[in-house]
Amino acid sequence: MRQQREYSKREGGGPRSRRLAIAVVCAVSALAAMATAAQASVITIGSVLPDEWTSKKFDRVETIFNTALPESGAALTSPVNGAIVRWRVQGAVGGPFYLRVLHPDGKGAYEAAGKSAPATPAGTGLQTFETNLKIQAGDVIGVDPSNDTDEIGVKTESGASYASIFPTPFNGTIAPPSKTFSGEEVELSAEVQPAPEVASVSPPFGPVTGTALVTITGKNFNGTNAVKFGAAPAASFTVDSDTQITATAPRALRPGKVDVIVSTLAGDNPNTRFDDYVYRACVVPAVKNKTLKKAKNAAASPRLQARPREEGRRAEAGQGRQGAEAEPEAGQDPGPGRPGAHHPGRVAKTPENRRRGASPSRRRTPRR
Predict the structure, then answer these.
(1) Could you tell me which of 38, 105, 98, 86 has the C-alpha nearest to residue 192?
(2) What is the pTM of this model?
(3) Which of 19, 165, 232, 320 has its CA 20 to 30 A from that of 3?
(4) Which fold has domain 197-280?
């Protein structure tokens, strides 16, 4: 028996160790699934990075960028607003290198719109660097060296071309190309994560007290790090998919319309009429000289509801008694407007009625 227990300890550590191992495996699997589900979609721009390239020296510290890419599927400019999350080079030697975002001004020049942190390649093969660099639709990418002896991969390709700007521009400055090179392309590409877009908010309204569950539909929601209703962050939110978010609206100080803002690494969704959310105020009944509690009790009381009917009956009976007391004497004209002038429940005292033996009577209004 002792030998069996010792054997079990040597083999697997017993049931407790097995349960611990299973829990660790499940946790790792769950984290991997979450990472895969939350991975944002990206768009590749720049060179397709062909295999046949040659490392070419810069000769001076300048910005170089592709101006024509003939390969099928190659995107020279960014088709969307967003952020560059990764960039790649081949044939790079030296460094560090900087990724550059250039915005065409429409007149043949380029505005320096942004620059990444420095990155040093570990070899001449394909190198990938992480970054977070904003880019707009229509922008192109370039690369800056640190030294004139640095090298970058260049591929001879018919129909391709690239240009350079010397010296490397400061952010915000506009400069035309210094040189152009035909029949070659620079081995440089980048991955752009598009900014989120909101297509609808359902329901588009809710109380100022918050707590309303709101479904936000659109695209590019993976990687969402914040959801706001105006300036107030959502009470909670869940990224259901790349096209849907479920959020709980926060409280609002006053009624009115706000924008629903979805934020990712690529930025915020553009403001459109489709992301509007309206806070509605609570409607309170108009009551005079009463608290809300007393007004509700008064409206719900059966005794108070029956009081108008009782008062109406008493008033009707009172009018009948007043008419009887005001009955005119025999042969007297009651006159216009008198209660007894045309009273249907009374017999007038006339000689004709006496001859017939009819006696005047007072008909009282029956109690109801």
Answers:
(1) 86
(2) 0.66
(3) 19
(4) Immunoglobulin-like (2.60.40)
